[in-house]
Request: fold
Amino acid sequence: MLNIRRLLQGLVLSAPVIATLLIPTAGTAAANPIQPVGPINLPPMPTLVAVVDQQLLTDPGFEGATPSGWIKTEGAFVTSNVHKCGSRSLSLGFLGNAFFFQDVAIPANATSPNLSFYLRIDSNVASTSAVDTLDVLLKTAPALPMTGTTLATLATYSNLDTTNSQFVRKGNFDLSSYKGQTLRVWFQGTFAQHAGQSTQFFIDDTAVWTRQHLVLNFC
Ligand SMILES: [Ca+2]
Reply:
């Protein structure tokens, strides 16, 4: 494969590049073997634009026993009972109301930044109303953890949205409005009290993807 960087490594040029070529002149070889013929303008060196896809969340699959990058309350816990990828997922519901979140900086030059994740909902709640819910929120990211002002509610799921014991992909939620900002990606579980009935939300394989255009100038 052509290595453009190595190919250009030996050249030190400025744009516009001006070079003076020296060539032999007929009949004057003995006294003056070469004569300058003047400057020649060469086209500027190329500018390359590299398109790079990047996933920004840390430990997106909750594979750490204490998942790094995430902050959570006690009722949000890592479980190895079910998982979409790896061997663990993040569970909400067994211990009542709980939430977890991670701060993510959306680059100013990102193209089509978006959030996605896999969600499994198990429930044996008899109610035909949405009594146990999972809200997926975007919040501001102040220095004080466990806080933040809600910027948007991306989605709300409930006991009515069971997934037949399967993980289902959710997204892509558009984050384009937040380029250049740090977001707090927040999963909030809210649960009613049920005798012998419960709802569990399992989240796995989260992702915030961006496509960035990196400009490479060879000059
Ligand atoms: Ca996992």
Q: What stands out?
A: The pocket of calcium ion is lined by residues 61-63, 83, 85-86, 88-89, 204 (CB under 6 Å). Residues 52-215 form a domain with the Jelly Rolls fold (CATH 2.60.120.260). The longest helix spans residues 4-8.
